[in-house]
Design brief:
Radius of gyration: 19 Å
Oligomer: single chain
Strand order of the largest sheet: 3-2-1-4-5-6-11
Largest sheet: 7 strands, parallel
CATH superfamily of the domain at 5-177 and 215-241 and 279-292: NAD(P)-binding Rossmann-like Domain
Bound molecules: nicotinamide-adenine-dinucleotide, uridine-5'-diphosphate
Order of helices and strands: EHEEEHHEHEEHEEEHEEHEHH
Distance between the termini: 36 Å
Number of strands: 13
Shape: globular
CATH class of the domain at 5-177 and 215-241 and 279-292: Alpha Beta
CATH topology of the domain at 5-177 and 215-241 and 279-292: Rossmann fold
Helix content: 25-40%
Strand content: 15-25%
CATH architecture of the domain at 5-177 and 215-241 and 279-292: 3-Layer(aba) Sandwich
């Protein structure tokens, strides 16, 4: 058991709500900070009776002072539809959010962990992606507000550690899925499951030959907490499931698991859509003794059951 005071920004979101739940189960006091842009009160409603849990409606682009031991900085919309809705705000959330949380970490001497992303590798020319790859990122495209915002957030974590001795850490999360994704989230796993359950066409963008590696949220949360509590290792470290699938394979798998009548249709490939993505997780294995345990089929079954219960 652990009894730290922990701040989770973006705590009402998909990953953040799972993180709050597990941290509470471990005995900690948890403050969930969120502006509810892409997160929901429903995600954390079941935690509200716990006296060790608090919710603060706040925007990370504004400073805040709280007495905490650890900060998980997860506030930022993650789905392309949400982060491209107001790209300037997305940049502010990543950069001002990181500055404000680093300022807080410095002031109260908290350890801070930044939720970075495989998007820092852009449309990668190295495969699979290792942490020492610098990436292939467009700084003036529809994904740039997210990718470059996250890259600067990493830079700030690095410089605050060097300049101000802030105990900062970086994880690079690869595509994660599971329960509590919004039905209208827009990311591929939730889109395909919702379409297949409702008998709608499955919208494969492009020819579906692009690849992704999908990590179930429970595995990810385990890796995130291991990284936070690991001393003498600042990262960045990749966290994801190295199983690699084409988007067409994913569509076919979901149709089969649901036994759906939906048809696959093709839609235009969005600008700068990465063609292939797969994490090299040898660093996480070595430093954190972490690797995912839930395979795609089992994780999809659990996610399908969730969407059946909410649709
Ligand atoms: P999400 O959209 O469900 O969660 C983000 C949360 O942050 C939401 O609750 C949202 O309301 C909140 N938020 C957004 N802007 C805010 C602001 N300015 N101030 C306060 N709160 C704000 O997305 P998620 O999938 O849970 O992602 C969580 C984090 O993990 C994000 O930082 C994302 O970049 C990162 N990440 C996720 C994935 C993935 O596959 N899910 C992959 C890579 C990185
Ligand atoms: N995608 C798709 N149909 C959809 C949603 C997404 O074919 O309805 C594709 C998208 O073009 C991308 C992949 O699935 O190649 C993963 O998209 P997502 O938005 O989930 O995550 P990201 O592109 O950020 O990895």
């Amino acid at each position: 058991m652990s009894n730290k005071r922990i701040l989770v920004t973006g705590g009402a979101g998909f990953i953040g709500s799972h993180l709050c739940e597990t941290l509470l189960e471990q005995g900690n006091e948890v403050i969930c900070l969120d502006n509810f842009f892409s997160g929901r009160k429903e995600n954390i409603n079941h935690l509200r009776n716990n006296l060790r849990f608090e919710i603060i409606r706040h925007d990370v682009t504004e400073p805040i002072l709280l007495e905490v031991d650890q900060i998980y900085n997860f506030a930022c919309p993650a789905s392309p539809g949400f982060y491209q809705y107001n790209p300037v705000k997305t940049v502010k959330t990543s950069i001002l959010g990181a500055l404000n949380m680093l300022g807080l970490a410095k002031r109260v001497k908290a350890r801070i962990l930044q939720a970075s992303t495989s998007e820092v590798y852009g449309d990668p020319k190295v495969h699979p992606q290792k942490e020492d790859y610098w990436g292939h990122v467009n700084c003036i495209g529809v994904r740039s507000c997210y990718d470059e915002g996250k890259r600067v957030a990493e830079t700030l974590m690095y410089d605050y550690r060097k300049q101000n001795n802030v105990d900062s850490k970086i994880i690079r999360i690869f595509n994660t899925y599971g329960d509590r994704m919004l039905p209208n989230d827009g990311r591929v796993v939730s889109n395909f499951i919702v379409q297949a359950l409702q008998g709608d066409d499955i919208t494969v963008y492009g020819d579906g030959a692009q690849t992704r590696s999908f990590c179930f949220v429970d595995d990810l949360v385990d890796g995130i907490i291991k990284m936070m509590n690991k001393d003498d290792f600042t990262g960045p470290v990749n966290l994801g499931n190295p199983g690699e699938f084409t988007i067409l394979e994913l569509a076919e798998k979901i149709i089969k698991l649901i036994n759906s009548n939906s048809k696959i249709i093709n839609k235009p490939l969005p600008q700068d859509d990465p063609m292939q993505r797969k994490p090299d997780i040898s660093l996480a294995k070595e430093k954190l003794s972490w690797e995912p345990k839930i395979n795609l089929e089992d994780g999809l079954k659990r996610t399908i059951n969730y969407f059946k219960s909410v649709l």
